[in-house]
Write a structure and sequence with these properties.
The chain is an alpha/beta fold. Helices cover about 50% and strands about 15% of the residues.
């Protein structure tokens, strides 16, 4: 496809080429509404200087650095989550947000703590996915004292210390899964429950919600002892073969 030109950008944004040039080069002040329209148009058509436009349009906004610690870099879910975080950060119109996304090579306290300390050296706030370890809570408390807030993602951790939790109501998610099984199963029977790890607070809450729904509303089903699959393809395949 032909590379979009400045004329294409002017046509899509509904302004003159001269106005686009002023936004690009910062020669004269342009109304904020107009500059944002030019930037949005550049993003939509893939204009080559969209990075420069962003710098011009948002140069007066506050700047923040956000560190993100995710799990399992080869898992498509976390890859998609990373892309969404970057997209939302770049689309922010109230601040210029730079993200540093890292992955934990293992879900152990030492690895998570090492990554947290590394992210804290370069960022003003941190959000992470991880198990709920006392040692990690201690580090989160230290970072909080230094003015670096930490947010838990997807599964809560460091309750009472972390700045906030971003994710679903996991107890409701567990009850919803149980409701779906109870309503769609052709007849009552045994139900298997898998969790990635008992150390994930979110997994624990989902299991509680899952079991409580069956206990209260569908006691004719038998929920089996919970199995840990570590969320790996190998363990899932092995456990699938037992059923």
């Amino acid at each position: 496809m032909k590379r979009p030109t400045i004329q294409d950008l002017a046509n899509v944004s509904g302004v003159s080429v001269a106005t686009v040039d002023r936004v690009l080069n910062g020669r004269h002040r342009v109304r904020e509404e107009t500059a944002r329209r030019v930037y949005d148009a550049a993003s939509s058509i893939g204009y080559h200087a969209v990075g420069l436009l962003r710098q011009r349009v948002f140069q007066d906004l506050p700047q923040y650095r956000l560190g993100i610690l995710l799990q399992r870099p080869n898992q498509s879910f976390y890859q998609s989550l990373a892309r969404e975080i970057e997209t939302v950060a770049q689309a922010s119109t109230s601040a210029r947000i730079a993200t540093q996304i890292e992955y934990a090579s293992a879900s152990t306290p030492s690895v998570i703590i090492e990554k947290l300390e590394m992210l804290a050296r370069r960022n003003q706030a941190i959000a992470l996915v991880g198990p709920d370890y006392p040692a990690v809570t201690s580090v989160v408390e230290v970072l909080k004292a230094k003015g670096i807030p930490v947010f838990s993602l997807l599964s809560d951790l460091a309750s009472g210390v972390r700045e906030g939790y971003i994710g679903l109501n996991n107890r409701k998610a567990g009850r919803t899964a149980a409701w779906f099984i109870a309503k769609t199963a052709t007849k009552p029977g045994k139900v298997a429950c898998f969790v990635g790890s008992h150390r994930y607070h979110g997994h624990e809450l989902r299991e509680i919600g899952f079991r409580s729904y069956f206990r209260e509303n569908a006691p004719e089903f038998q929920v089996l002892e919970t199995l840990i699959n570590l969320e790996t393809a190998r363990s899932l395949t092995r456990q699938r073969s037992t059923f």
